Amino acid sequence: MSYDAAILDETVRIVAEAAPEADRTGQFPWAGIRAVHASGLLESTVATRYGGKGASLRDVAYILAALGRGDPSVALISAMTIFNHLGQATKNHWPDALYRRLLAGSKQQPLLLNAARVEPELGSPARGGLPATIARRTAAGWSISGRKRFVTGAHGLTHFLVWAHTDETPERVGTFVVPNGLPGIHVIENWSSLGMRATGSHDVEYIDVEIPAENVLDLVDPSVAQQDNRAHAAFNLALTAIYLGAAEAAQAAFIRFAHERVPANLGRPIAQTERFVTLSGEIDLLVSGAREIILGALENNQGEAERMIRARLLAGRQIRDAVQIAVRGIGNPGLSADLGLERHFRDVQSVLVHAPQEDTSIAMLGRAAFTRWSDDEAARTAYPVDVSIRKSA
């Protein structure tokens, strides 16, 4: 375990206290993000070679579930940076001097990184395609122009990781590290979502934004630049832990309400009625089951993409169902902002919205199942079992 449980608990308490106001206003959740930064959790996955703790992906799932209990929006913004550090720890694809400079700056203020990949015309790269955003060579480096959608944490990010193609011949595709606040960057405040309101996942437009030549990652030929959904399956499963945390917060709110609500005609808490005992059991089956699915799959991760995809879908569906049961079981009080269940219900609707979305993920499982059948059929044809032996058996 590469984090202090007591520090994590205290951080979650601070994040949870600030969550209702962040949800109400939709403003960048600075109180929660500063608490996560102060705890060191933002840098939990920095590699040991850089002086970090080198947290594993399973550690990340624990951290994100805890932060999700406090505020899923804070957890999601934090996750983007945590995953980027983990990516550098495993792939070592950042220019070393640039990465060390960013790490040094993170000691004074939160270093917040996030990929800007989705575009208005292209949609999500998870469905295929290449970016329209262009990076032009300049005397000093690169000039970035284009528009991105759903850039989580846009106002608070220190750096955008902008996916773009170059103006070279032949052209290349890569990720350009664009510091926030430069001339030509415009955040278009159009995030108006049912849940996850404080993520501030606005559009961002880049107009001739100048960056240094070394601020580029993974510059490759377009033929190998398609997003590999299978390669990111374990990361996507760990991201689902955010919504597990929200479901656990909803479960806690349900249980607290059931113990505190004493109808005059009943004379005892509704938690003592058979109906609420059954409802509590249904919620626990789904929420605790989702935790076991997520953490169990990550604990035994052998690089099997289908297993990670399957776990993400199963856990995500259970999370949504559990919170819906809690809200429906309580009735009108469950729809009130006072109890908190209503916010958790809105937030967990996003659990399977992240790319690759549910239909894409299911199609991946379907194709894999067909491929397995075809492989088995080919093996049976190549090595047929003797009919007389099969019959005698």
What does this structure look like?
The chain is built from 11 helices and 8 strands. The chain is an alpha+beta fold and 393 residues long. The chain has 3 domains: 5-110, Acyl-CoA dehydrogenase/oxidase, N-terminal domain (Butyryl-Coa Dehydrogenase, subunit A, domain 1, Orthogonal Bundle); 114-224, Butyryl-CoA Dehydrogenase, subunit A, domain 2; 233-370, Butyryl-CoA Dehydrogenase, subunit A, domain 3 (Up-down Bundle). Strands 1, 2, 3, 4, 5, 6, 7 and 8 form an 8-stranded mixed β-sheet that branches. Helix 7 (274-299) runs antiparallel to helix 8. The relative contact order is 0.11.
CATH architecture of the largest domain: Up-down Bundle
Helicity range: 40-55%
Q: What is the third-level CATH name, the topology of the largest domain?
A: Butyryl-CoA Dehydrogenase, subunit A, domain 3
Tally the helices.
Answer: 11
Terminal residue distance: 51 Å
Question: What value does the average pLDDT take?
Answer: 94
Q: What topology emerges from the helices and strands here?
A:
Layout lengths: L4 H21 L4 H10 L17 H14 L1 H20 L4 H10 L7 E4 L17 E4 L3 E11 L7 E8 L6 E7 L5 E4 L13 E11 L3 E5 L12 H28 L13 H26 L5 H26 L10 H8 L9 H25 L4 H6 L1
Parallel strand pairs: 1-4, 2-4
Antiparallel strand pairs: 2-3, 3-7, 4-5, 5-8, 6-7
Keywords for this structure?
single chain, 393 residues, alpha+beta, Butyryl-Coa Dehydrogenase, subunit A, domain 1, Butyryl-CoA Dehydrogenase, subunit A, domain 2, Butyryl-CoA Dehydrogenase, subunit A, domain 3, 3 domains, 11 helices, 8 strands, disordered C terminus
